[in-house]
Amino acid sequence: MTELIVYPDQSIQTMIDVAGPGDVISIMPGAYFENLEIKVGRNSKLANLTRENRLTIQASAPGVYLYTADPNKGKSIIEAFAISHVTLTGLDIISDNSKAAANDGGGLKLIGRTNGASPDVQESEDFVLDKCSIGGTGISGIKCAMFKGLDVRWCYFDGVFSHTFIDLVTVWNSGIYRCTFDGQWSASIGMKAGSRDIDILRNNFYSQPEGEGQTSILVGGIGFSRDDRDPLPDNFTGFEAKDITVIENIIESNTKNGVMFQGGQFSVVTQNYFNNTGGTMVKFAHAASTIPSDSTDNWVGDNWVGSNITVHASLAAGQERNEVVGTVPGTESDVFSLWDKTKEPAPEPVDEYQSQLDDLFLRVGYLEDKLRSLHEALG
After folding, report:
1. Is 6 among the domain residues?
2. What single DSSP character describes residue 28?
3. What is the count of structural domains for the chain?
């Protein structure tokens, strides 16, 4: 392992272009104006990264601020292409990206597929964003597509983004854990286009009064994202999002819906506190497209609601194959008490973080039985 130190008068990109497996790039406090690229095309040694010998880019101390080099170019501050086994930690990423194209992020763009016309799915995996802050302006704070194993934890999201703080398009086996969402946006987290097996655990969802969005958590999305997936394997087609777990979150944002299913399937929402100002805890809607998709076989149970919630479940026509039960009045303290029971340590190192998730899933294993029973009852 080599530690590569970057000072404010130096280039972070230069260090990325020479780093190898196991190396740590430590950035000294200061302001850096760069658009960074992490890809094998710039540094062939990045093809040899492994989970044990990963590339780490970290702030050596608080106060590392990353800004775009030229807001008129419409590029994300950090772009990673077909890369695996990377950790970013302690960085303040401040986007000024109002000119970004719709397929760009603003803060971080992570693409696990090298050729959009290719039928091959490049299984890029294991990208960790730890204790980072993403703010400013742009389309999305994080845009991630065709990726396995995105791990976002203990991060803070702020600013004004016209789309979504975290936009997941065909992403699987991933998790968002103990993050805080503030600012203005359409949705805090969106999952669509064949996204599956994603865990949304113990996050805080807030927003400024002027930042009203459609929903805090969007399970599914706009239907055209299903129509252009013909080259992909079958396990990415036929649905927008499924097997999503939303548990022990606090949703007090200025949004119309706490959670919205739009073509979302076989997912669980439980033990959350809802008090979003729009008044609807969960909404089930149809994802319209030439290949329509209903929201079906979802289980929403044992959640708490505050005084703002007037509608526990809003079901559009044809979205009756879902169950909402066990909603009771409560406060955010009900969720905080669950966090306290586990006596969780700070999630360092990764193995310790994984242990926390394993313990949490043991406590909610019964939900799989509930989903199975619901599916059988509905035929």
Report:
1. no
2. P
3. 1
Angle at 367 between CA 354 and CA 247, to 5 degrees: 55
**Which of 58-67, 90-99, 191-200, 249-258 has the weakest average pLDDT?**
90-99
Sequence-distant (6+) residues with CB within 8 A of 209 are 254
Q: What is the domain-level CATH number for residue 251?
A: 2.160.20
Residue 373, classed as helix, strand or coil, is helix
> If you search the block for the tokens 């040694």, which residue do you land on?
45
CB neighbour list of residue 145: distance below 8 Å, 6 or more residues apart = 110, 111, 112, 113, 168, 169, 170, 171, 193
**Range(s) of the domain holding residue 224:** 76-378
Domain membership of residue 296 (yes or no) is yes
For the ranges 55-59, 137-141, 145-149, 305-309, the lowest mean pLDDT is seen at: 137-141
Question: pLDDT digits over 364-374, tens only?
Answer: 554 555 565 66
pLDDT tens-digit series, residues 292-350: 678 889 999 999 999 999 999 998 887 888 999 999 999 999 998 888 765 554 444 44
Quote the CA–CA distance of 152 and 134 in Å, as a whole number.
12
Radius of gyration of the chain (CA): 20
Both tokens assigned to 238: 């036929």
Q: Could you tell me where the DSSP H helices lie in the chain?
A: 12-16, 224-227, 332-341, 350-363, 366-378
Using alpha carbons only, give the angle 168, 278, 323 rounded to the nearest 5 degrees.
Answer: 65
Residue 317: the pLDDT is: 81
In this structure, is the dihedral angle defined by the CA atoms of residues 353, 358, 362 and 368, taken in order, positive or negative? positive
CA dist 31 and 34 (Å) reads 10
Q: Answer whether residue 29 is part of any domain.
A: no
Residue 26 Cα to chain centre, angstroms:
25
Q: Is residue 32 part of a domain?
A: no
β-partners of residue 128 are 87, 151
